[in-house]
Design a protein that fits this description.
The chain is mainly α and 498 residues long. Among the domains are: 195 residues, Lysozyme (Orthogonal Bundle), CATH 1.10.530; 52 residues, LysM domain (Membrane-bound Lytic Murein Transglycosylase D, Chain A, Roll); 57 residues, LysM domain (Membrane-bound Lytic Murein Transglycosylase D, Chain A, Roll). Helix 5 crosses helix 6, helix 9 crosses helix 10 and helix 10 crosses helix 13. The protein is globular and about 90 Å long.
């Protein structure tokens, strides 16, 4: 009885403490990332169960980076074994015997094998580690569709197992779907989400697409060629080869990229299976499949907020959830998925209400500040051209480099030709030329210029009225000024640089 009473007292104390904390932390978004958060931990018992489950899975984990175990031939550290053509051919034959696909050895496949086991040894080593996260999922879906397991290696050729990969042709994700093909297989793309980068959804779509192509050609090498360049190019090559339906028979009539596509696939199969025989060993795997879990959400989740509560870098959340373009899961009627490390799942569930609350509050500030120009201008998509750089684009469209990076979740200043950027531009005045228009009215107070806020003003609008003044300058010189608390009639200090 005493234990029941004591438990009731503890629970009551916790409720009071939580209520007090909630009252004290009704949101100050500008200070959010600087303050210590009240984080509710998972129960000790559930933590122990989770740890026991991970330990149970890990005992069956055969992955190792221990070269003392993997280096059965006793190679020296940097030794590159010389492999004869006959041995390479025999190894391919053994692989060929265990698959319905054809692994032919010739001068072309030999060159690609040398590419992966000699010139790109580091990449092969990284792939050996990354596959620990993706391959169990690939294998499950390939088995469900009754497809050859060797097709899992195709994702290495396509994206080097990078779910956020993008090509010059605007293909995206692990399986490099272009927009139109992705749409055919149910992969949706909007301003916040790109299903082509969802590891689970894109894998399901890739399996269906490969199965459809095989049913057309009844030949896996031709199906792979069609996956790369489209059935149209393969059909044209078959016609030019006199109707022959064999990859090597139509090889010379295929696009150059596709000529190397199937040989690269064969080479990757070889490299992944015989890496240790070439003195290549896996790097440390950042994530493993059994260490991950999925949770379904309907509310807005900002990765910056979730990262703070979960003590996980935003970059890790972005890597595990590459389909969310702005590192934000939007508030939708349909359910969204959030992939998390298993050891963070309990922490998320314990703090879910707070994560959703702060994510929603940040949306208000984010849209009133970063996207303020959309109220007076418009959203546009800009395609990067040769010679473009962020400074050039920002000057052309009257916005800041930092804003372009925020709008497009760019972590560096590097751009790719063909890359699409979302821009928010100010609407031009319908009246007289703005350069010839009247200057904004200011008044002098104690030697400083002050501007009176008008109805409908945003920080972006105000900064734009004064050359050399940015939104950051306004918030820096006006303590407590935020996009969400602009009051008509209030005066703010204007301090120009220089």
């Amino acid at each position: 009885m005493k234990r029941v009473i004591m438990l009731g007292i503890i629970c009551a104390f916790n409720v009071i403490a939580y209520s007090q904390d909630t009252a004290q932390t009704i949101i100050d978004t500008t200070a959010f990332f600087k303050r210590d958060l009240v984080v509710f931990k998972d129960t000790f018992l559930l933590q122990q169960i989770d740890e026991a489950l991970l330990a149970f899975n890990s005992q069956y984990d055969s992955f190792t980076t221990d070269t003392a175990i993997l280096n059965t031939a006793g190679y020296t550290k940097n030794e590159r074994p010389e492999i004869s053509d006959s041995l390479m051919k025999e190894r391919l034959r053994l692989l060929d015997d265990n698959t319905p696909m054809s692994f032919e050895f010739n001068s072309v496949t030999k060159n690609y094998i040398n590419l992966y086991v000699n010139k790109r040894r580091r990449l092969t080593s990284i792939m050996l580690a990354r596959k620990e996260y993706f391959f169990p999922m690939f294998e499950e879906h390939l088995a469900a569709q009754k497809l050859p397991q060797e097709l899992k290696y195709l994702a290495i050729v396509e994206s080097a197992l990078r779910p956020d990969a993008e090509s010059w042709a605007s293909a995206s994700g692990l399986w490099q779907f272009i927009y139109s093909t992705g749409k055919m297989y149910g992969l949706e793309v909007d301003s916040y989400k790109d299903d082509r980068k969802d590891p689970f959804k894109s894998t399901v779509a890739a399996c269906k697409h490969l199965k459809d192509l095989y049913e057309i050609y009844d030949d896996w090498e031709l199906a792979l060629a069609a996956y790369n360049s489209g059935p149209g190019n393969v059909n044209k090559a078959i016609r030019r080869a006199g109707g022959k339906k064999n990859f090597w028979a139509i090889y010379n009539y295929l696009p150059r990229e596709t000529q190397g596509y199937v040989p690269a696939f064969i080479a990757v199969n070889y490299a992944m299976n015989y890496a240790s025989e070439h003195n290549i060993y896996p790097k440390q795997a950042q994530w493993k499949f059994y260490e991950m879990d999925t949770i379904y959400v309907n509310d807005r989740i900002d990765f910056k907020v979730a990262a703070k509560y979960l003590d996980v870098p935003v970059e890790d959340l972005a890597y595990l959830n590459p389909m969310y373009i702005h590192n934000i899961i939007p508030n939708r009627e349909t359910t969204n998925t959030l992939y998390l490390p298993k050891d963070k799942l309990g922490l998320y569930l314990a703090n879910e209400d707070s994560i959703i609350y702060y994510s929603t509050e940040f949306k208000k500030v984010y849209e009133s500040d970063i996207f303020a120009s959309n109220e007076t201008g418009g959203r546009m998509t800009y395609r990067v051209r040769s010679g473009d750089y962020l400074g050039k684009i920002s000057r052309k469209y009257g916005c800041r480099v930092s804003d372009i990076k925020k709008w497009n979740n760019l972590r560096s200043n590097n751009l790719r030709i063909g890359q699409r950027l979302t821009l928010y531009t100010k609407k031009k005045s319908k009246g007289k030329n703005t350069k010839l228009g009247t200057k904004p009215t200011v008044e002098k107070i104690n030697g400083f210029d002050y501007y009176t806020i008008k109805k409908g003003d945003t920080l972006w609008d105000i900064a734009s009225k004064f050359p050399g003044v940015s939104v950051d300058d306004l918030t820096k010189h006006n303590k407590g000024l935020k996009p969400s608390n602009l009051k008509t009639g209030s005066k703010i200090k204007i301090v120009k640089k220089g």
